[in-house]
Amino acid sequence: MTPPATAATRSEKVRRAGPSGIGAGRPGFLWAAPAAVFFGLFAIVPLVMVAVLSFASWDGLSDPEFAGLDNWRKLLDDPVMIKSLWLSVLLTLLGVVVQTPLSILLGVWAAGHQRNRAVLSAIYFVPMLLSIAAVSVLWRAVLDPNFGVPAQAKWLFGDGNLFGMQSSAIGVLVFVSTWQFTPLHTLIYQGAARAVPQVLYQAAQIDGAGTVRQFFHITLPQLRNSIITSMILMVVGGLTTFDTVLILTQGGPGSDTTISAYYMYQKAFKSFDYGAASAIALLLVLVSTLISLIVVRLSGYDKMRSTMEGL
Amino acid sequence: MSRNRPNYFAGFGSLVWLLVVGLPLYVMLVATFQSRPDYAANGPLAFPEHFTLDNYINDLNSGFAQYFLNTVIVTMCVVGIVVLLVPPLAYTIVRSRGRATTTVFRLFLLGLAIPSQAVVVPMFFVISEAGLYDNLIGVILPTAAFAMPVCALILTGVMRDITPDLYEAMTIDGASSRRVFFQLVLPLSRSGVSTIIVFSALQAWNGFLFPLVLTQSAETKVITMGLYDFQTEHGVDTPGLLAAVVLSMLPILIVYLFARRALVQGLMGVGGK
């Protein structure tokens, strides 16, 4: 077991390790090769293929034909595609707006060391363990218009068919992903809130700052890096939501919840237009890679340094 | 957090959240222990009058046992591949100073951003061409590949905490990188390795998209596919469906009870530092 290194001793170690460390006995690239080859084969190669296919016309049976920008032009003219992009963005934004404050509050609250908080956090964590398929099936049953909770609580749900209207169907999708993914983000904030130096709070208390002021002037700024990481995860996760839509709404009513990832699946495996599907897929990759590059830069992950060092 | 008075607002909020998390789980559990007519008559919020295990028994008899077995096979193989490949990778990323290693690390970081849907079309053809369509191996390989970035990130974080002095001491003794890996790095990152085991297992167990696109027949169905099919075919049998949901999560809950520490700590490190 590694003893948990405190932030201070850790950065000290990093500095001492520097270039003065003995260079001999370092592992060569061969150690990383099996993992790199495996990952390359099943993630990078298909990614390149997606890019190539997005410029081809292909039904999956005959040979793919080079089609230039045809797929892209078609997509730009496709009203469902434009709508699906807008829906993806809307769903993602709503997710971020709902989940961020909720998980920050829950995370900061759970960072306390009282026993009841530990027990509650353990329960809060359960939705995270379930597969998206299980969660979607569960909520589909709970919200069923005839046999579910809405049939019993008409005063709250009206006619009860939450899946029959665009606004309520989107509401359900946002709610279900909040239910499932808030634990993950809560945990990220909980870890970060525990790492905030207690000195800062003690100093603030001497200055007479109350709980609310301490939260806004110490906790929130200290959580900056976690907020970035967590938001990126939310954005990438939101843009690529798929299972939830497939099981809960099948993109309906009409195409009112057909988000891009689901539209891509339909194009490929229902209409067998693999070229168009690849173009949508490439679009998704570009957006999520762009966002991740930004976070890697902002958080300094790639420089392998602890963000506590500046303190 | 040192606070003098209890924060009633936060306490109230956390109880509300407990309701939001707990109520659907309660509805699910209660529904699975009653017959279909009972459930239809009493509604989802009522407590069952006649306790029955029939829903579970029916599910297990209608193929879920096979799906269970398939999922166990997929999960064990994915965990095996990840545990075999990721520790040496993380070791190289942390210790090697070469340019190739840095590139590989960035590639894996980017891999975090590649959504699995994005590659599912070419994956379908690669797997079909390799003759692995509708074969569990065809599900195992891509699932393992997509579990690797997160695991690499977690394990490099853990290995970076090993003091350089230890490496230096071993190197002065003339140890090869192989000895350093097996006698120093692996033993000291045991906690990290258990985290990635739990992680990759969770991902494999809950995988949906690759099985959806890459398998077809009942012999290769995994449990998430079983749920999806059940829902489309017998959507009205809510108690049976929910019993299947409970069955699908039971092993995960057991793992969670035993490996909670590793799982939670691994996740906290992702954005915490």
TrEMBL record, chain B:
<comment type="similarity">
    <text>Belongs to the binding-protein-dependent transport system permease family.</text>
</comment>
<keyword id="KW-0812">Transmembrane</keyword>
<dbReference type="GO" id="GO:0005886">
    <property type="term" value="C:plasma membrane"/>
</dbReference>
<keyword id="KW-1003">Cell membrane</keyword>
<protein>
    <submittedName>
        <fullName>ABC transporter permease subunit</fullName>
    </submittedName>
</protein>
<keyword id="KW-0472">Membrane</keyword>
<feature type="transmembrane region" description="Helical">
    <location>
        <begin position="64"/>
        <end position="86"/>
    </location>
</feature>
<feature type="transmembrane region" description="Helical">
    <location>
        <begin position="139"/>
        <end position="159"/>
    </location>
</feature>
<feature type="transmembrane region" description="Helical">
    <location>
        <begin position="7"/>
        <end position="29"/>
    </location>
</feature>
<feature type="domain" description="ABC transmembrane type-1">
    <location>
        <begin position="68"/>
        <end position="259"/>
    </location>
</feature>
<feature type="transmembrane region" description="Helical">
    <location>
        <begin position="240"/>
        <end position="259"/>
    </location>
</feature>
<dbReference type="InterPro" id="IPR000515">
    <property type="entry name" value="MetI-like"/>
</dbReference>
<keyword id="KW-0813">Transport</keyword>
<dbReference type="InterPro" id="IPR035906">
    <property type="entry name" value="MetI-like_sf"/>
</dbReference>
<dbReference type="GO" id="GO:0055085">
    <property type="term" value="P:transmembrane transport"/>
</dbReference>
<dbReference type="Pfam" id="PF00528">
    <property type="entry name" value="BPD_transp_1"/>
</dbReference>
<feature type="transmembrane region" description="Helical">
    <location>
        <begin position="180"/>
        <end position="205"/>
    </location>
</feature>
<feature type="transmembrane region" description="Helical">
    <location>
        <begin position="107"/>
        <end position="127"/>
    </location>
</feature>
<keyword id="KW-1133">Transmembrane helix</keyword>
